[in-house]
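quick q for whoever's on today - can somebody do inverse folding on this one?? i tried earlier but teh output was garbage lol. tokens:
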């Protein structure tokens, strides 16, 4: 019987060993993040990690291990035994590969993939491209680790299996006891060797006041993705406050997310909304007081614009920024994102609203049409026109082929051409009768129709998402190579930022003499901050390795060439959730929208912002910040004062109420 259990035992030992190797690779790859670990804390994290490794290992291989332990001579002498062993190995190596991929992702946002595996699977082509270019060194390292592990697997498991001679189990009861022992070990393993109470859970990684670094080192990436994905698919309700507090809050604030300017008069302004990939405040000299000298045009434009200096991204992924900016619907761990299921919910959709006001609506990105599910998102939000990289012609020479995320210059010039052209074959004029359907009075309708008929063109709402500043950073013409080129570090990003800034300048030069230029409002915002290693060691050490509000601070400017928005520097806290109601305000639309933010031009704006970081939620006001989950605060600037505590509790109530409304499909009318 002992010889029968030898191979299952070896599979388990090797499985745990392989996970330990992947965990050590993560630790060695990000020593700056895991700095400050005492040896005892490191060993505690590694030991805790064995529990999570066991949970995923026995959950997936439990049946294989049980079949390999059944004391039936005919079964163990057949082809089934080697097949089960090889299948176990294949599964383990898939899990190891996933852990190594997760390690590369970890460097971007200081957390594991988790439930975001449900979102990124649609962009496997982009991921493969990055793995073969800017992350080639990490890819090679991962392949080498897997190769070494395979040699160990072959010597530790396969050779002993082939040379093993199995003798019949002479005592039936011994065989039964052996099977029962195997079942007991499998059950305990699935529970993470927690003998009583609930099985091991993600929250156990934070037990005994463990820091986020300790928790991230303990967690098994495959286990975390499995558990979070299951919760995500089940849409388990968010639980930040008790039910009684939530009911009281909902009763007293039933319309807290409703925003409307009932007396608004249509301005008939156009809007061009440019979402800039990975633009980060600290690299913009006009915002941070630095001297990178890569955004001269943006710095100049700031002097003529309204600028929000304390403006934050909703999250650390582009899709979150797009969702926040165009729908003002909060990103929650209990809900899917736009493009992956959220769009079936009732929500406010800016293009749909603009279309009701007889605007031409256009959306485009420099990436492929289907990248980030953007083609479907455009349709779901009500955009009538949509373009992607396949539609954009190349206009100048570059020292490399087109990058996966496209060229900003070509994309912006394509947008300019589309705006200059006729209205895509649609009727350019709106009658008084049409406009009166969405305004308050016949007088307003007449005024709006008169303005619309001017120049014989419909007003437009245009959105473009740029991409050249996305890693891997492309090789650019020499005039943009201000820093040594590197396709994955800060210096490469700075060169791409210089190019992107120049592309913006050329876009404005192209359209500044168009008759509609002065009737247009330009909104320039980033989607999220740069998620790559900082070259300057002093800056990196000063900012620290933990997640903080600085990982979300991005630029926002709103420019009106006609002077209707005089230059101003705003110090109030703002976020991407404020953009939808702000655009409604600027356009003079009197529709009611549901938004997790307020108009930036509304004096009653809230004094804090909500941030989303996958497995953690964030809060930031003018003085303090904190990141938390259902187990409590996990990271903070310092001890929160009473005002911050009250605001944080208010945010928790709003988040849980928003989650309830979304689950009941009552977020918007």
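ok took a stab at it. sequence:
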């Amino acid at each position: 019987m002992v010889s029968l259990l030898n191979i299952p035992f070896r599979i388990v030992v090797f499985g745990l060993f392989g996970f330990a190797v992947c965990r050590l690779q993560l630790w060695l790859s990000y020593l700056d993040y895991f700095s400050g670990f005492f040896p005892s804390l490191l060993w505690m994290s590694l030991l805790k990690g064995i529990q999570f490794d066991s949970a995923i290992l026995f959950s997936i291989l439990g049946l294989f291990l049980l079949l390999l332990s059944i004391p039936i001579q005919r079964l163990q002498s057949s082809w089934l035994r080697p097949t089960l062993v090889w299948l176990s190995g294949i599964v383990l190596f898939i899990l190891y590969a996933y852990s190594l991929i997760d390690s590369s992702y970890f460097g971007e946002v200081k957390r594991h993939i988790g439930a975001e595996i449900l979102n990124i699977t649609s962009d496997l082509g982009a991921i493969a491209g990055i793995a073969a270019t800017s992350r080639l060194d990490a890819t090679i390292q991962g392949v080498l680790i897997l190769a070494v592990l395979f040699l160990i697997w072959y010597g530790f498991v396969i050779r002993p299996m082939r040379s093993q001679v199995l003798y019949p189990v002479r005592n039936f009861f011994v065989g039964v006891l052996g099977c029962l022992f195997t079942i007991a070990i499998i059950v305990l393993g699935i529970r993470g060797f927690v003998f009583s109470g609930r099985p091991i859970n993600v929250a156990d990684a934070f037990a005994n006041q463990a820091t986020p670094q300790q928790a991230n080192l303990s967690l098994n990436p495959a286990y975390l993705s499995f558990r979070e994905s299951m919760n995500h698919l089940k849409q388990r309700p968010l639980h930040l406050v008790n039910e009684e507090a939530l009911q009281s809050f909902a009763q007293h604030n039933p319309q807290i997310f409703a925003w409307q300017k009932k007396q608004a008069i249509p301005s008939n302004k156009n809007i061009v909304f440019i979402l800039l990939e990975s633009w980060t405040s600290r690299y913009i000299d006009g915002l941070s007081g630095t001297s990178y000298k890569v955004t001269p045009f943006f710095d100049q434009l700031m002097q003529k614009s309204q600028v929000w200096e304390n403006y934050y991204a909703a999250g650390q992924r582009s899709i979150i920024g797009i969702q926040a900016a165009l729908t003002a619907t909060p990103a929650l761990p209990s809900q899917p994102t736009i493009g992956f299921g959220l769009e079936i919910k009732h929500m406010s959709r800016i293009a749909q609203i603009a279309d009701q006001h007889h605007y031409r609506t256009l959306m485009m990105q420099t990436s492929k049409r289907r990248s980030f599910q953007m083609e479907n998102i455009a349709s779901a939000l009500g955009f009538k026109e949509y373009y992607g990289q396949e539609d954009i012609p190349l206009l100048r020479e570059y020292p490399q082929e087109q990058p996966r995320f496209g060229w900003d210059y070509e994309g912006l010039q394509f947008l300019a051409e589309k705006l200059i052209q006729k209205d895509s074959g649609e009727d350019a004029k709106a009658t008084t009768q049409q406009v009166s359907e969405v305004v308050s009075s016949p007088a307003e309708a007449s005024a709006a129709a008169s303005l619309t008929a001017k120049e014989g063109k419909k007003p437009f709402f245009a959105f473009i998402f740029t991409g050249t500043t996305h890693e891997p950073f492309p090789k650019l013409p020499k005039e943009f190579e201000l820093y040594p080129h590197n396709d994955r570090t800060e210096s490469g990003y700075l060169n791409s930022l210089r190019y992107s800034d120049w592309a913006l300048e050329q876009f404005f030069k192209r359209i500044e003499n168009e008759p509609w230029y002065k009737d247009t409002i330009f909104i320039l915002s980033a989607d999220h901050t740069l998620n790559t290693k900082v070259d300057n060691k002093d800056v990196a050490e000063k900012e620290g390795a933990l997640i903080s509000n600085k990982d979300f601070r991005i630029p926002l400017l709103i420019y009106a060439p006609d002077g209707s928005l005089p230059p101003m520097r705003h110090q109030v806290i703002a976020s991407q959730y404020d953009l939808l109601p702000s655009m409604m305000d600027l356009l003079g639309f009197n529709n009611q929208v549901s938004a997790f933010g307020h108009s930036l031009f509304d004096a009653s704006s809230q004094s804090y912002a909500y941030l989303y970081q996958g497995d953690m939620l964030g809060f930031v006001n003018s003085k303090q910040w904190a990141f938390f989950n259902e187990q409590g605060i996990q990271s903070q600037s310092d001890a929160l004062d009473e005002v911050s505590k009250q605001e944080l509790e208010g945010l928790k109530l709003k988040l849980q109420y928003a989650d309830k409304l979304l689950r009941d499909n009552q977020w918007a009318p």
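fwiw Residues 1-231 form one domain. also The chain has a mean pLDDT of 87. so keep that in mind when u check it
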